Amino acid sequence: MKNLKQLYSATQISQRIDALANEISDDFKDLERPVVIGVLKGAIFFLSDLVRRMKTADSLQIEFVHLSSYGSARESTGRIQTPYLDLPNISHRHILIVEDIVDSGRTSRFFIDYLNDQFAPASIRLASFLDKPSGRVLDVHPDYTGFTIDKVFVVGYGLDYGGESGDCFRELPYLATLNLEIE
Ligand code: IMP
Ligand code: MG
After folding, report:
1. What pLDDT does 177 receive?
2. Which residue owns the Cα nearest ligand 1 atom 16?
3. Res 69: pLDDT
4. What gap in Å lies between CA 181 and CA 183, rounded to an integer?
5. Distance from Cα 42 to the centre of ligand 2, integer Å
6. Which domains occur in the chain, in start order?
7. Which of 6, 59, 77, 182 has its CA 20 to 30 A from that of 176?
8. Is 115 helix (H, G, I), strand (E, B) or coil?
9. Residue 155: nearest ligand to its CA?
10. pLDDT, position 162
């Protein structure tokens, strides 16, 4: 596809996640039953690659929510939609949120506040496959970041372009920039 340009290959992503999984495991290895919460849909591949590389004394508990702030546009709408937000009782637990990308920070801020309100967790940490600091509106800092990217729109490895035909390009095994100007 002409308007897709590879930014990180599947191999580069895999190597980065190896390192990230080691770093996260160091922090979580002795915690009691850590809860890993993936934010659908974008975090599917990142979460599945990450947790399979993590080494912790206790087994992980894996949960999902489906949050969305984009609608079909490329810019954040500012409103968080919650198509699926149904978690079991995870009060006072150690939580790792797994996101695809932190852009404006609205989705992460919403979810961190929600978890704090509902479950008074022992700790909350945020792992994001990508960090796009140029888009930041709210003060959110991932504790663990796969790659920091410039002000570009990316697709693949779970991230989509919600064009007229709906979610596109999520399934790509690599990360690519999408140039919509030359469509
Ligand atoms: P935030 O709430 O503005 O931080 O945005 C988070 C959501 O925006 C992500 O979960 C993505 O779905 C979407 N998003 C932000 N930047 C990109 C991008 O470059 N490509 C694809 N989706 C993006
Ligand atoms: Mg999206």
Report:
1. 97
2. 103
3. 81
4. 6
5. 6
6. 16-150 (3.40.50.2020)
7. 77
8. helix
9. 1
10. 86
